């Protein structure tokens, strides 16, 4: 086979694989989205895979082709928020250089928006994580610890640069993470505070904790 034909064939195969992966990701995300809403409304224990399948308009065997059981779906739901938060954090830190105060503000603002957008996912995690397997629980905790560690490093560097108060302990990263994760307890869509107001207050609180004000 001519080299040009081989390259064309390889490109076509790669394109086909990419489309297949996108299709699988779409269906997986759709299952997670519907299951998250049902777990949020009814509770994990009260919701069955039959309920999830019925709401999706598919059969239960279809679900098993993507997740081995209901617990695996719960683990995927619980991982959404922290995975997106880490992606935002790493993208922000790798972007155009800014001072540490601006970096912390941007990270907290973007992650706060994620928690608001993914509020049902976050509530399901907080309420139902007791149903996770030990392995899934540890894996998600490692992701959370990675987020806290990178925020702590950002604060430590800000202290060294003189941008944060010199007596600020980098452990406040854990407090900042706590503030972010508990947004669903004091924010309600359509409530007295808008999402923008909540995020603004969150950023201001994080900066105070870091000793930037």
Keyphrases for this structure?
10 helices; 213 residues; Arc Repressor Mutant, subunit A; mainly alpha; Tetracycline Repressor, domain 2; elongated; single chain
What does it look like?
The chain is mainly alpha-helical. The chain folds into 2 domains: 1-67, Homeodomain-like (Arc Repressor Mutant, subunit A, Orthogonal Bundle), CATH 1.10.10; 71-213, Tetracycline Repressor, domain 2 (Orthogonal Bundle). It contains 10 helices and no strands. Helix 4 (70-94) packs antiparallel against helix 5 (100-117), helix 5 (100-117) packs antiparallel against helix 10 and helix 8 runs antiparallel to helix 10 (195-210). The longest helix has 40 residues, at 3-42. The radius of gyration is 21 Å and the shape is elongated. Mean pLDDT is 88; it is low at 1-15. InterPro entries: DNA-bd_HTH_TetR-type_CS, Homeodomain-like_sf, HTH-type_TetR-like_transc_reg, HTH_TetR, KstR2_TetR_C, Tet_transcr_reg_TetR-rel_C_sf. Residues 25-85 form the HTH tetR-type domain.
């Amino acid at each position: 086979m001519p080299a040009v034909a081989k390259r064309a064939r390889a490109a076509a195969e790669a394109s086909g694989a990419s489309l297949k992966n996108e299709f699988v990701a779409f269906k997986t995300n759709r299952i997670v989205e519907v299951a998250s809403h049902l777990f949020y409304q009814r509770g994990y224990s009260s919701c069955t895979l039959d309920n999830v399948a019925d709401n999706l308009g598919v059969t239960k065997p279809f679900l098993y082709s993507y997740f081995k059981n209901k617990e695996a779906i719960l683990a995927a739901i619980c991982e959404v928020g922290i995975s997106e938060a880490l992606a935002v954090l790493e993208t922000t830190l790798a972007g155009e250089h800014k001072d540490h105060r601006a970096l912390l503000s941007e990270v907290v603002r973007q992650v706060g928006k994620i928690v608001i957008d993914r509020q049902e996912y976050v509530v399901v995690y907080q309420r139902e994580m007791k149903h996770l397997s030990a392995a899934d629980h540890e894996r998600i905790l490692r992701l959370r610890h990675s987020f806290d560690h990178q925020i702590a490093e950002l604060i430590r560097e800000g202290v060294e640069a003189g941008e944060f108060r010199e007596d600020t302990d980098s452990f406040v990263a854990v407090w900042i993470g706590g503030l972010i994760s508990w947004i669903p307890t004091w924010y309600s869509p359509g409530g007295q505070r808008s999402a923008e107001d909540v995020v603004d207050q969150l950023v201001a609180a994080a900066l105070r904790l870091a000793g930037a004000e």
